[in-house]
């Protein structure tokens, strides 16, 4: 069994221009709480931090890189002179009418016309290449790094989002194959952070790739398949900028910045309202006077960003997962991710008594099993099982009555002898209390305020009751079947709402 203090998860990192230091703070705080990220995905600034974390830089090292070593002006071919000059011209034109340099604007226009952006950001690729080689000596002689090479070195899964102007949608880079693009990690990050007009698009054959934020600034969809198939949670770190407060005159500079920011953020605005409850959403408030294009941001301001991410994530864990630090077993770790047993156990007692009073079941026990990152179901909450050898039973998916209910997405009532033999090893069979004769299991689906088909909902657990009466004596599949099914479904909906982290 893996270290219960280590909660395996995927990390999704928001885009935010120069604000990436905040994401380093997020990962550092999560690391301190025992979260082991087995995959990183990101957009724009999030793609830079995702790559650095993927190749093995710890939270403390990420802080050093993002607050001391990363100087965004170094990534601009002329240290930002052309951009600053353009921003200055626009600002001066806003405050008072004065002649501006027609020649300068002609230069800028032609630069956009020819190359579709001001800068190439080759120095960013060189910086990241050096960081990869420092962390992964096996790649020391490489001139470029591919997703395949990271996979060969058993690095965590890495996914990077850019926007494909040809298809008008996201292009996901990873080493997974299928619809996801492979190739150069450096080119993927370079494309993902291509802020419109500041950086030139990355051309791949007939595709023009730009900032991933145009498609999704917080791409929570990146690990959707892994989340559903592997039952591993996702932590989504969102850099939330305050609403702009224009002065008396709303000029062209602010108008242009707000237009681009809206394009980058609006795609995710509604998404934030419907994030699945099995994704932990962590918003990080960014100081209002730090802009996406503040490439000359001082070390002190970068540390302020790091602290903002660290504090927001720490606050989230303290408020939403306070028991995680005290967890010493896998059961306690899962209880920390959901709710305390003091809330669930009384409900399980009521469920057991209802089955005992209204059916032929006797000496009824009840338990709630939750999925783990080991492709198993584990008894996390229970009633009347305190001293029993199966009070923390862990079963591979698909075995036993609960495994069948999980796979078939339906209620299963069965003779317990048959259930024991349904794929269970002899050792697991011997852990089930010997007087148990019948068991009923019902899958629990994610809670939703609207009626949706079960096939569209995620499974989040299995409720089971067992008895020392035979299946025939219980009446669960005959005279009491309707009552049993209605009661089981009613309680599964209640437990789903209770487990809802939203």
Automatic annotation (TrEMBL):
Residues 11-224 form the PNPLA domain. The active site is at residues 44, 211. This is Patatin-like phospholipase family protein. A motif (GXGXXG) lies at residues 15-20. A motif (DGA/G) lies at residues 211-213. Keywords: Hydrolase, Lipid degradation, Lipid metabolism. It comes from Gloeobacter morelensis MG652769. A motif (GXSXG) lies at residues 42-46.
């Amino acid at each position: 069994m893996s270290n219960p203090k280590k909660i395996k998860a995927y990390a999704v990192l928001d885009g935010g221009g120069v604000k990436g230091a905040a994401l380093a703070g997020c990962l550092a705080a999560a690391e301190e709480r025992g979260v082991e990220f087995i995959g990183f995905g990101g957009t724009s600034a999030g793609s830079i931090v995702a790559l650095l974390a993927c190749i093995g830089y710890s939270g403390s090292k990420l802080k050093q890189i993002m607050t001391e070593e990363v100087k965004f002006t170094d990534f601009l071919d002329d240290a930002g002179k052309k951009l600053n000059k353009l921003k200055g011209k626009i600002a001066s034109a806003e405050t008072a009418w004065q002649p501006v340099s027609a020649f300068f604007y002609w230069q800028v226009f032609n630069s956009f016309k020819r190359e579709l952006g001001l800068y190439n950001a080759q120095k960013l690729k060189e910086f990241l290449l050096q960081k990869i080689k420092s962390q992964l000596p096996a790649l020391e002689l490489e001139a470029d790094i591919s997703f395949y090479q990271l996979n060969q070195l058993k690095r965590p899964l890495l996914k990077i989002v850019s926007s494909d102007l040809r298809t008008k949608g996201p292009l996901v880079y990873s080493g997974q194959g299928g619809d996801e693009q492979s190739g150069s990690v450096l080119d993927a990050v370079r494309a993902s952070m291509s802020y419109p007009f500041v950086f030139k698009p990355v051309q791949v054959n007939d595709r023009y790739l730009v900032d991933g934020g145009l498609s999704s600034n917080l791409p929570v969809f990146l690990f959707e398949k892994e989340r559903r198939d592997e039952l591993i949670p996702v932590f989504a770190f969102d850099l939330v900028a305050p609403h702009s407060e224009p002065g008396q005159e709303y000029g062209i500079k602010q108008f242009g910045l707000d237009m681009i920011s809206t394009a980058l953020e609006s795609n995710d605005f509604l998404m934030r309202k419907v994030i699945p409850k099995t994704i932990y959403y962590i918003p990080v408030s960014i100081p209002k006077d730090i802009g996406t294009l503040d490439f000359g941001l001082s070390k002190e301001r970068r540390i302020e960003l790091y602290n903002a991410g660290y504090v927001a994530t720490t606050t989230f864990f303290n408020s939403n997962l306070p028991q995680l630090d005290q967890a010493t077993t896998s059961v306690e770790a899962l209880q920390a991710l959901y709710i305390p047993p003091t809330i669930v156990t009384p409900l399980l007692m009521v469920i057991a008594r209802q089955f005992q009073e209204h059916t032929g079941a006797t000496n009824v026990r009840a338990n709630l099993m939750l999925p783990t990152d080991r492709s198993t179901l584990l008894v996390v909450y229970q009633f009347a099982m305190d001293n029993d050898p199966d009070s923390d039973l862990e079963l591979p998916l698909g075995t036993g009555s609960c495994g069948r209910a999980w796979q078939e997405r339906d209620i299963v009532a069965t003779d317990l002898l048959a259930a024991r033999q349904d794929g269970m090893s002899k050792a697991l069979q011997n852990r089930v209390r010997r007087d148990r004769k019948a068991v009923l299991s019902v899958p629990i689906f994610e809670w939703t305020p609207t009626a949706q088909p079960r096939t569209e909902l995620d499974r989040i657990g299995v409720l089971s009751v067992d008895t020392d009466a035979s299946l025939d004596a219980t009446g669960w599949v005959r005279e009491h079947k309707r009552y049993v099914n209605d009661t089981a479904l009613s309680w599964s909906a209640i437990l789903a709402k209770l487990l809802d982290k939203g």
